[in-house]
Amino acid sequence: MRERKSYRYQVVDVFTQTPLEGNPVAVFPEAADLDSSTMQKIARELNLSETVFIVPPQQASCVVRLRIFTPGKEMDFAGHPTLGTGFVLLQLGRVSSGSRNFRVEENVGAISIRVDEEERSMLWLETPPIQDGPTIDKDAAAALLSLLPGQLADATPQMLSAGNPSLFIALKDKAAVDQASLDNSTWAAIKRQYFSGPMCVFVFSPTAEGAYSRMFAPDYGVSEDPATGSATGPLALYMMRNQMMPARDGSRFISEQGTRMGRRSLLHVRLRGEKGKDGIDVGGYVTPVIHGEMHI
Questions:
Q1: What average pLDDT does this structure show over 189-211?
Q2: Domain ranges of the chain
């Protein structure tokens, strides 16, 4: 029987200042000797939305490379793991204590992280380029969510991706968002017709603060995600296109997500340039909750 090795890890709650709310992510700071299969098994063992493994970067401009896994597959990009890992890197001294900007490498490319000027426990990431996908029929979208067509807002449902393809469906009010329940047979039919790869379903209603949101990701082994940073930049773009939020330089809003499942998360968005042409930043607070050790 081979000798087992120990790997330290941390769990932090992202997009919250309250322990046991927000979206938890596990971060393994020293994972260079783990292969992809073992990383996937660890992610399945912990069964969080995502688990991050820090390995040496391939791009010289990046401080580290992140391998991000859901219980079901590896992700090209994910928001709360990026911010949570950025916080851990700062705590461990892997990034200079005076640094306000640094980059991490993910499968989608280099991601810029900024430390908030006033709140060091709040970090911002720059959303990667957003790609347009197909639109879908509103009746099909209503059936997908087990809702009536009249509960949908006027905006046409559309798939957008910043490395994590998501179908955005706007609803008229919070009650409809809370009522939504993914119909698996309709989901399978929509994917056969419009998109063949793994995809998420992001539902929301506009609010005075920004948006009230939920996200379903059965393709990734996640029935519902408490906070989805990778989809929040595309959410801002979708809302701007449909006149649901201001599109001027410096505009900010908050997407409240995870409340329905008891893990309230607050995802901050700010635009740089008119319509976010200079970037869409997604930010949030990070709260440490667990230091652990795994023996495998």
A1: 93
A2: 6-127+285-295, 131-280
Q: Is 221 exposed, middle or buried (0-12, 13-18, 19+ CB in 10 A)?
A: middle
| 251 contacts 239 by C-beta, under 8 angstroms | no
Q: What Å distances lie between residue 293 and 44, 137, 286, CA to CA?
A: 16, 48, 21
Say what the alpha-carbon torsion angle 94, 54, 20, 227 is, to the nearest 10 degrees. Answer: 110
Q: Which CATH superfamily is domain 6-127+285-295 in?
A: Diaminopimelate Epimerase; Chain A, domain 1 (3.10.310.10)
**98: pLDDT strictly greater than 70:** yes
Gap between the Cα atoms of 70 and 80, Å rounded? 12
With bands split at pLDDT 50, 70 and 90, how would you rate the model's confidence at 75? very high
Q: What is the dihedral of CA 152, 153, 158, 162, to 10 degrees?
A: -110
Write down how long the chain is: 296
Long-range pairs of 271-276 with CB within 8 A, sequence gap ≥ 24: 271/236, 271/247, 273/249, 274/247, 274/248, 274/249, 275/240, 275/247, 276/236, 276/237, 276/240, 276/247
**173 burial level (CB within 10 Å; 0-12, 13-18, 19+):** middle
> What integer pLDDT is reported at residue 242 of this predicted model?
96
Residue type for position 224: E
Instruction: Of 85, 76, 117, 119, give the one whose Cα is nearest residue 9.
Output: 85
The residues annotated with a catalytic role in the active site are 50
Query: How far, in Å, CA of 162 to CA of 281, rounded?
Result: 12
**Candidates 3.40.190.10, 3.40.47.10, 2.60.40.10, 3.10.310.10; correct CATH number of 131-280?**
3.10.310.10
Please name the amino acid found at residue 255: S
The domains spanning 6-127+285-295 and 131-280 adopt the same CATH topology: yes
